[in-house]
Amino acid sequence: MRYRKLTAWLAGACVVLALAGCGGKPEPAPAPAPAKVELNVSAALGLKEALLDIQKEYEQKNPNITIVYNLAAAGVLQTQIERGVPADVFISAAPKQMDELQKKGLLAAGTRRDLVGNKLVLVVPKDSTLGLASFADLAKDSVGRFGLGTPETMPAGQYGVEVLKHVGVWDKVKDKAVLTKDVRQIIAYVETKNVDAGIAFSTVAVLSDKVRMVADAPEGSHEPIVFPGAVLKEAKQPQAAQAFLAYLTGPDAAKVFRKYGFSVLSPQK
């Protein structure tokens, strides 16, 4: 009898426990990992160091995102985009290229914003003895050649021509200009003394210890130097592109841009 009672009690206890288990809330299923995303960013070469630093930080915070940069002169990137080369985000070194893409309906509506500003400077080899102290000095007979970005494709070249016209020497010096594909090539020519001077963005010039900056472009001598960014209308990853562009206007990216000498233009939250 005792054995039967014990057996019955144990059976009842098992039923109660089983019912309790069935009545409890099931363990939540683990959230699926975010899908892997490859984000293609076409950006002006002058932003290279800052963007590489930002890439490291952004990918650490968003491990499912891989940023792939296409870095070149803004005019070259514009042409690539017009020809259908895939890109999710475009960052130009001047409004001109962005304006032209916008007119052709190639930007996602409402995504364009100004990111950073820059300065235009005259650079010479570190041991130059020519005594250049202004952009107008490029007209001196002692200057044989100077580096200038190709104005049609390079914003730094576009701004450079504006400055030289403003100071009244463009017609005198245009035949001395050695046109280059990007700002880094200008610095390389100055470093190797293939040219006597060069016109470049200050943020690129400061990276070299073989050149020195001898003059800033006079105030008001060129259109404001602005680097705008936008999501492209044909972006394959539009949501990720908008999130990255938003990050570029936030406080974390601002610290990196300032580290490399850029002035931050977008409001920081």
How do the strands and helices of this protein lay out in sequence?
Elements: H1 2-23, E1 37-44, H2 48-61, E2 65-72, H3 74-82, E3 89-91, H4 95-103, E4 113-117, E5 120-125, E6 146-149, H5 155-166, H6 170-173, E7 177-180, H7 183-191, E8 197-201, H8 202-205, E9 211-216, E10 226-231, H9 238-248, H10 251-259, E11 263-264
Parallel strand pairs: 1-2, 1-3, 6-7, 6-8
Antiparallel strand pairs: 3-10, 4-10, 4-11, 5-8, 5-9
Helix pairs in contact: 2-10, 3-4
Describe this structure in words.
The protein has 269 residues and is of the alpha/beta class. The protein folds into 2 domains: 37-117 and 226-264, Periplasmic binding protein-like II (D-Maltodextrin-Binding Protein, domain 2), CATH 3.40.190.10; 120-216, Periplasmic binding protein-like II (D-Maltodextrin-Binding Protein, domain 2). It has 10 helices and 11 strands. It has helices at 2-23, 48-61, 74-82, 95-103, 155-166, 170-173, 183-191, 202-205, 238-248, 251-259; strands at residues 37-44, 65-72, 89-91, 113-117, 120-125, 146-149, 177-180, 197-201, 211-216, 226-231, 263-264. It has a 6-stranded mixed beta sheet with strand order 2-1-3-10-4-11. The chain has a 5-stranded mixed beta sheet with strand order 7-6-8-5-9. The protein is elongated. Mean pLDDT is 90; it is low at 14-20.
